[in-house]
Amino acid sequence: MVFVCATVAAMSASQVVPAFLTVTAYFAGVVLYVKTMIRERGNTGYYRASVAYHLVIFGIAAWSSPPIAILFAMLLARAYVLPQRRMTPKHVGIIEITASVLLVIALTAF
After folding, report:
1. Domain map of the chain by residue range?
2. Mean pLDDT computed over 2-7
3. In this predicted structure, what is the pLDDT of residue 53?
4. What phi and psi, each to the nearest 5 degrees, are found at residue 42?
5. Disulfide-capable partner of 61 in 40, 51, 68, 103 (CB 3.0 to 4.6 Å)?
6. CA distance linking residue 110 with residue 105, whole number of Å
7. How far apart are CA 43 and CA 97, in angstroms?
8. SS3 letters across 60-106
């Protein structure tokens, strides 16, 4: 959708590559995180993979953009802390909706 929005806004594809990479990194992390929260709850392998992924992405974001780094720091904290608590899928979804809104806000400040 990032490239579709760029086309509609008459922007070149090269202008939106950072946003595309950020969104892709976010959603790849969501897959790992949600699996640790629902289907793979208690699986230490998935938990470690999720935290490691978020740590690496935070490091890359810290090097590139402060607003994105703040977002990925929050996502890293979420991936580290929340799988240790029992949450319903509804609550996981609400947190992900909030994280998605924060992603859009961080991208506008990018």
Report:
1. 2-6+18-108
2. 76
3. 96
4. 90, -10
5. 68
6. 9
7. 24
8. HHHHHCHHHHHHHHHHHHHHHHHHHCCCCHHHHHHHHHHHHHHHHHH
pLDDT band at 73, cuts 50/70/90? very high
> 71: closest CA among 43, 47, 107?
107
How far is the CA of 59 from the CAs of 4, 5, 9, 15, 45, in angstroms? 28, 28, 31, 22, 21
pLDDT at 13 over 80: no
Q: Which two tokens stand for residue 26?
A: 């976010």
Distance of CA 99 to the CA centre of its chain: 7
Rounded distance, CA 47 to CA 11, Å?
Answer: 39
DSSP structure class, residue 1: -
Model confidence at 67, pLDDT cuts 50, 70, 90, reads very high
Those residues with Cβ within 8 angstroms of residue 48's Cβ, 6 or more apart along the chain or in another chain:
none
- Model pLDDT, residue 8: 78
Rounded to whole angstroms, how far apart are CA atoms 88 and 26? 21
